[in-house]
Write the structure tokens for this entry.
Amino acid sequence: MTSNSIVKLFSLFILTLTLVQDCDVLSDFDYEVQPNLPYSFNHLDLDLTLSPDDQTVKGVATYTLNAKVPNQTELILYASEVEIDGVTFDGAEVEHRVSGDSLIITTAEAITTTSEQALAVTFQSRPAYGTHLDRHQTFWSNMNPKALRSWLPVYDHPRVELTVDAAFTIPADQDVIFNGQMTNEDVVSTDQKEVRWQVDTAIPVTGLGFAVGSFSTTEAQSGVHKVRVYKQAQVDADVDALLAQAISEKKAVESALTFEYPWEALNIVVLEDTYWDEVTEGAGLVFVSALRGNMEAQLQRGIAGQWFGQYHRMELFQDRIEGMELVKVALNRAMNQDAVGLTNPDSVTSLLAYELYNYDYESIDEYYREVIEQSLSTLISTEKGVVTFDTYASYWYDKTGLNWQGLGLGDQAPDQLDSLTAEADELADYGISLEMDEVNGKAIVYFEHIDSNAETLHAVNMNIYTFDDTTSKEITFTGELDTVVVDVPLSLEYITFDTQGTDLDKVEFGRFPVMMLLSQLRSNEVADRRLAASLLSYHTENPDLQLAIQDALDREENEEVIAALLETLGEFTAGATGTEQQFVNELNNESEAIQLASIKALANYVDDESVPYSLQSKVVRAQNETVFEAAKKSLLAVADLDLKLSTVSQLIRTDTTGARSIAMLEVVLAQDTTGQAIELTEQLMGNEFISTVRLQALDLLLEFQTDASYWAEMLVELSNDRDPRIRYRALNATRYLSEGDKAPVLEALRMRESDPRVRAGINSSLEY
């Protein structure tokens, strides 16, 4: 065991997080520990109108409750961004007032302890923090701690459990998703419909959540439970695979814990983006984001969270990221699953904790890991509702006598997570070149070490093709540079190599004799012809070869070989005037390989007037990202600044996500002195583009726009943005403000900010 403690691990979290710079922000997510709660909320009737167009929630929340302690005449609900229109208790209007984020209600008579009474609150809200609205007009609730109170008057605490009947009035062409089961749908008018949902198993109010938008639905039965996947219409995802995984995952957890799924249904909502949410699962509800990376891993974590995060839940956020995230990883490991692969572009604290635990799990003492994994079934069976991390740690201590804080975990710093799933670049181990000693009938093969262990003995087969026969010889080589001389017949046509213990993906072929390559172009094997076409590019000093390449093109039928020949021909023509038309003609070839070869060749025509416009058309109309990236690279090599700016402008009008436009601007901004590129970048901050592009656009503005007056105005404008990541990252612009402007602007931002993480950033900027 190492001496690092879990306390040090999470100190490391706070020190290295790039977004949350004020560690007090975690305490803003804490619920009050064992609050005064002398009444029971038993049931909630919701009658709500959800309006994505104006981002409002309005209606009536009716709580069925009773007192736990006699003589209670005051009730408290939380309503931080909610306007209260009226309150009744058992049908009669009662006094109420709002103080801070609390709705304080005074009843005329004491609340009974023996029977249930009804508290009805009529309200409306347009929360800046409690809900999200994306570019597809999907409207959903933020399930971060204390976010519920921003759109619903509620005693927002994990100790409150209740059943729910909910009636949602929504646009007629949309769908609504909630906890539990959908029971009915009725048309209200040509513009609206009412959808009813029911939750018969008491759930924590902190697990409540909704989503309204255009969804496709796939469902199946798993035991007594329905499992449904609701996919946002604009998202590309394999819903059948997600549904199958959800059912399999649910069954596996039930088996591992010998504890049935705790809720009556499992509803999975697949969105383009879950924004900056720390918590993406509710009770029977899991949000999955296409932009957060591995959706299967997200689902795995969300399903584990149904038991550890919802059925078991915690009042303190620090407990949650220490306890629940570790337990989710331990649960997955107990089922022989390893969910490394989530991306974390937003530095979400809880997700970062999960990834660190998952990555560094093996550094926990082996026996202690076994105790953790074996304890989960007992803990979930004996504990219910609100628990603390100490509940878990004490149980493990009783079994081992080892203090959790003395265990080594977290040797890996968070910034190392970026490389966890990155694929290593496959560098060539050896380069192979060939010369002929025709007088003596010898082939001289040169092996030059590039990467890997130069002391290892390698072997390849050398295939010798003659007019009427083919033979193979094994040749071996090692060291930094090795030369092997092989006897070959006078009737030799060409030589190829194939693997025997050496991965040819790691072999880079070099210079081979011209006549041998020309013979190889007549091989019956496509791979041989393709390689020969490519290797002819080592002989550009011989311009006469262009005719041979053209002859080969005229007779070749395989598109991969044609593409290799065109690419090599481009090396020979090297942008010479009058040779471009052949490549331009192939830009719209049905074969992508041929298109790519032609695009690459056109990058050489820096002095041609027509080529840039042909490439511009390809950039704007490219059908896939591979072709776009190649065309963009070639266009940037040959176009002048005006054409580059014009291309970006056209892309913005046709680019559905903005990703292609931002890829161009990343290069063009550094070259532009006119200010036009800045204006184009501002357009990509529009809500119609995906969040990753909007954030990239903001980063580019922060890099290339340094005017103080610009940012003084822009910071105020961006403070109204629905994406808290935009509001947070924009704070980097305060470095451009004068000392006289900085404090007033930040104070104005703090007054209107509702997200605790952004407020923490504002506070840090004020102190800096």
Remarks:
- The first strand starts at residue 39 and ends at 51.
